[in-house]
Amino acid sequence: MILRGSSLFARLVAVLALVLAVGAGLLLAAAWASARLAADEAYDRLLVGAALQIAETIASDGREISVDPPFSAFETLGLSPRDRIFYKVVDPADGLLTGDADLAVPVDRARLAAGPVLLDAEHRGQAVRAVVAGRYVPDAAKAGFAAVVVAQTREARSGLARALTVKASLMVLAMSALALGAVAVAVRAALRPLRAIEGVLAARGPNELQPLGLAAPREIHLLVASIDHFMGRLSGHVAVMKRFIADAAHQIRTPLTALSAQLDLLSRETDEGRRRDQLARIRARTAELGHLTNQLLNHAMVIHRARSVAFDPVDVAGLARRTLIEAVQQQPGDRAVDVGYEGPEEAVTIPGDAIALREALSNLIHNAYRHGARRRLTVRVGRERGRVLLAVEDDGPGIPSGEWARVREPFRAAAGGGVGSGLGLSIAAEVAAAHGGEMRFETHSDRGFSVILSLPDGAEA
Amino acid sequence: MIGRLACAVAPLLALLLAPLAAGTAGAEEVTRFPASEHERTVLTIRAAADADAMAPLIRDYQQLYPDVTVIYHEYVTADLFGEVAAACAAGRAARDYPADVVISSSVDHLIKLANDGCARAHRSFETARQPDWAAWRDEVFGFTTEPAVIAYRPDLVPPEDLPHSRVALVDLLRRKPEAYAGRIGSYDITLSGIGYLFAAYDARAAATYGRLVEAFGRADLRVRCCTGDLIADLEAGRIAIGYNLLGSYVYRAMRRGARIGLVVPRDYTLVLSRAVLVPVTARAVGDAFAFVDYLLSARGQKVSREEAFFFDRTGPLPAGVEGPPSLATAGILRPITVGPVLLAVQDRAKRARFLAEWRQSIGAEAPRGGPRREEP
């Protein structure tokens, strides 16, 4: 059961849309601010122009200061067609020469020499933009700056700022929409390989376990590689199982056929003596069949465990001693074989699967006991360069070195081996491989033949 | 109707009646136009416009809105401006001062009112049709076309003397100073709002203004307070030529049968657009704007052209008027634009200086103590 998370596409697009929206918001704010500045700049020129035109007409005859606001000044102001106009002209002593007495824009004469002063103000409850322009009157009763104050409501400015902002906004919004569309397309394209994987997997039959063979972008290469790796392992596993089942079927069918034939003979036999012999043979066959079945099941179990069980620390020395004792107890005591253990008394611990290891060892001991050992069987535990060696040694003829490779395979026991003898070595080899080690054979003229499991001790894992 | 009667009779009589006129100054004349159907609203119009001129327009408006009673208050411009400005300043406190529509020939007054925030804005199909120079802020709308004209007595001015331009007028006064000395009339611009407006625009429009005023001074210009007085002087033969008279009033006198001729100058023509606004203190706002829309509509303009003010912007001049084919003839139209430029006219320093110069050129004494009277 896979938990259904929210769609990757939706998440990516949502995040990018959020980023775009924030960006667009900032751009709009910037556009509004700059549009306001631009509008102010444009209309400030008209305002200053009008104030200067009025200031130009300020004149003095030595006694009186006069002013004659020209039509042109008002025409200039009229270029912002809807705005109200307020103005006043004051003499150097702040006496009103003409205009609106209640226009309360401060006149800072210290700054007038440098040129007209622009400022924002309020008049009769309306926001206005005002300019104060000065004209120096030298020959008045009190020499100084006469001042022209012209104020204008902000309608045209706001209108222009709004128009500019709307245009900029349309462009920003169009860009954002375009970007969002591109993002959606790009994200969809980026996620297409996943869809391809999904398609390939969905189209497969249960037995098609070959690698995907897809060209994948770097970002999901690991995913494809993992799937391919998994497929490879699954495919190997299935192959082993298939072969095992085929072999096992063959192995079980043969003794069953023989058993069936013997039972036929038995049913037709009348002689009591021969009936007894045949019964004995059938019992022996049945025992062999049971042994074979056990080994088959063990083999399947070992193969399964090797691929699925996590390793725990295992004391292989103790394990070897216990397995040896159990094995010896199970053997028929018809031969005098000298059984021995050589190795440290203290624990020798490696990471491993105790059950599989015991099975492997037990099989080796049984093999040695049954097919090799004449007088002597020794289990040896030792260390060698980061490895732990478990050796089962006997004084029998051993396996000819030409067959060493073949006998590791299941059901390929040494020539002359009877039914049920084919699996022990292959189980041991499987277990060694599952522990990252190997199984090898050695022949010494003086000591005899030994099967050695060489397992890593885990110290340098 | 006392003021207007006084204007219509004789200046002598006017002088005699002066104390009476002064006593009634500010007391406007009221005409009531009752609704023909059940009265739904009362629309109060306060106007500086001749009630006789406005009556056809109001009656036609009542054809469209028969349930509206119109009360028409006629003022002189300065009084109207004073009252409306005071009502606007008082704001809510002036609720008992009904004024739904304000009309004035002194457009500068209305511009000043709108500039001070005393007018309501109105947008409609009709207002959208107006040229830029005939409206401001969707608050002040010019609805008439009234040229400043030269009026004359045909029997006192031989055809070869008839001036068709200012230059021709100056030339005539130079060529025949004796014939026309004391026979030229115009407004006393210190008293007449329209006279001042026309003079200010004359001064602005052409360099001939200075020469013209000097020539008037040499010819001993007769100045009067109002168009009615000047028309009466013409009819009585006391003057032969009247300069810058309001064309609509002169033409009305012609239609009435007065022996007067009318010339629209060919050098340039000042055109006044009498304006209307709806004050912020208006109560019947919807009907007020309906009236404004009516004045601006094709129907209202037709009535205006045929029965009230006789001129329009694009059509031919009325029958019997000498001048260019139409006011819109290329280059000669100098409209007095309804816009903030008129604030310059309102400037008191400018006015004081302009009047002083005018008085000096005309040779008039300091302002006379007579009644201050302005054109309705």
TrEMBL record, chain A:
GO molecular function: kinase activity
Superkingdom of the organism of origin: Bacteria
CDD domains: HATPase (cd00075), HisKA (cd00082)
Subcellular location(s) of the protein: Membrane
Transmembrane found in the keyword field: yes
Membrane-crossing segments per the record: 170-191
Main subcellular location: membrane
Keywords on record: Kinase, Membrane, Phosphoprotein, Transferase, Transmembrane, Transmembrane helix, Two-component regulatory system
Every HAMP domain range: 188-239
Enzymatic reactions: ATP + protein L-histidine = ADP + protein N-phospho-L-histidine
Span of domain Histidine kinase: 247-459
SUPFAM superfamilies (alphabetical): ATPase domain of HSP90 chaperone/DNA topoisomerase II/histidine kinase, Homodimeric domain of signal transducing histidine kinase
Family annotation (Pfam families): 2CSK_N, HATPase_c, HisKA
Entry's EC annotation: 2.7.13.3
InterPro entries: 2CSK_N, HAMP_dom, HATPase_C_sf, HATPase_dom, His_kinase_dom, HisK_dim/P_dom, HisK_dim/P_sf, Sig_transdc_His_kin-like_C
The protein's name: histidine kinase
Organism in which the protein naturally occurs: Methylobacterium ajmalii
From TrEMBL, chain B:
Domain of life per record: Bacteria
Coiled-coil parts of chain: none
Pfam short name (any one): SBP_bac_11
Alphabetical UniProt keywords: Signal
Signal sequence segment: 1-27
The protein's name: ABC transporter substrate-binding protein
UniProt source species: Methylobacterium ajmalii
